Structure formats: C-alpha cells, structure tokens
Amino acid sequence: MPDPTRNPTRALRLGIAGPVGTGKSSLIALLCRELRDTHRLGVITNDIYTDEDARFLRSEGVLEPERIRAVETGACPHTAIRDDVTANLSAVEDLEHDFDPLDVVLVESGGDNLTATFSPALVDAQIFVLDVAGGGDVARKGGPGIGRADLLVVNKTDLAPHVGVDVERMRADALAARDGRPVIALSRADRTSIDALTGWLDGVLTSFRAGEHSPVDPGPMAPHSHADGTVHTHA
Ligand SMILES: Nc1nc2c(ncn2[C@@H]2O[C@H](COP(=O)(O)OP(=O)(O)OP(=O)(O)O)[C@@H](O)[C@H]2O)c(=O)[nH]1
Ligand SMILES: [Mg+2]
Predict the structure, then answer these.
(1) How confident is the model at residue 227 (pLDDT cuts 50, 70, 90)?
(2) Could you tell me which residue ranges the CobW/HypB/UreG nucleotide-binding domain spans (predicted)?
C-alpha cells in the first residue's frame, strides 16, 4: 500500500558512506556513467576542507559540471551527514530545484571511520562501501553501516589476489553480519558486478516511486572523542 505521507515525485536521495579511499567517488562516477542516459542525476560531495571529490567527478566528465556540488563540512564528515544535515539538505534541495525533475541525487560522505552513517532525514537509502584492500576481516567486524545499510559494497575485488583476500569468504562474512541484507562484491572492471549494482538501484527507485520504500536508520555511530577533548555520543 503506497504511503501517502511520502513524496515519490522528488528524487531518490542515495547516500554513499565508508572509510577513506574505499572507492566512494569512483562508485558515484561509475553509477553516473551507467545511468546518465536513462536517469536524471545530481551529485553532492562532502569533504572536510576542500571540494576535491566534486572536482574529481567534474574532471571525469561524468555529468554536466553544474549537477555536481560540494559541501565543505569543516568538521568530521559524520557531523554533516548525521548530526546536523542542514548544509547537505539545502544543497540537495537546491540541486533538485535547479534541475527539476531529478531521478536520483547521490550524496557522498567524506571518508570516515567504520561507524559513520547517514541520517534518514537526509537520505532515503544508503550504501556502505568497504574495499578488499582494507583486509578480509573488516566485514566481520560489524558496525551500523556494515550491518544495516541498505546495501554493502565490497569494492575493488580485482585487487583481491594482490592483497591475499578471499572475496567469497568476505562476502559470506558480510552476509552473515547483515542478516541477509544485500551485499555486492564490486569492481569497476567486472561487468556482472556493475549490472548487479545498477539493478539494485533500479529496484530501490521502483519501490521508492511506488511509495513502498521506507528509509532505515542503520543506527548511531559509536561514541568517540576528538583532539580537543569533546566527546560525541551520537545518541
Ligand atoms: N583496482 C581498483 N581500484 C579502484 C576501484 N575503485 C576505486 N579504485 C581506486 O581507489 C582509490 C580511491 O578511490 P576514491 O573513489 O577516490 O575513494 P573515496 O572513497 O571516494 O575516497 P575519499 O573520498 O578520499 O574517502 C582511487 O585510486 C581509485 O582509482 C576498483 O574497482 N578497482
Ligand atoms: Mg571520495
């Protein structure tokens, strides 16, 4: 039964989170290349001090440059995607307004630790990205993104032989940590895995438009302290 309180006419907002360097910007570049002829897309990137990821995506020519906007968080990335999403939300809304109608807005989190997740107030669905170079054990270690993001991507599988990681083992660990929620072992060099990713996104988009998709909060990040002594509890 469609949920009348949701507005399926706006774009699906999809968050991409995960540790530094796991391939979030590359995954966004891949999605843009795959979908830009069939979907109307926009991208928001988050960096602490720079707009480097937005500049990377613009230089790759994956979308018109104006469709890629940067939010400089000025603080830990998770603050801007979870605690106070104002800057990101207004960037998403500006993009949706300027390019109305859009089908999907991709929001890249700045690289953070294993416990960073998006607030469901900012995104409708979220992907958590790990890579094989981070080690085969990471998927087993759990955390809200690994356990409960809408999709877990185990990225750069082409590197697995070089770093001694058994991708099937890592995938099985991830599936076990996620109670069967989806996991895709991805490489930009592996067509089958790319098709699985775009197929997953189209499935989410279809259920979003039908009013049948509800954003899930993977849960707060773990309490941690900062160099200045402040403690974030993220309740
Ligand atoms: N071998 C291989 N390398 C990849 C793949 N995807 C991304 N990379 C490389 O991984 C490195 C990091 O990729 P990015 O996309 O910048 O990672 P990121 O998560 O956006 O990084 P931050 O935003 O700095 O946290 C780059 O050198 C990419 O070229 C892949 O499928 N295979
Ligand atoms: Mg990036």
Answers:
(1) low
(2) 14-184
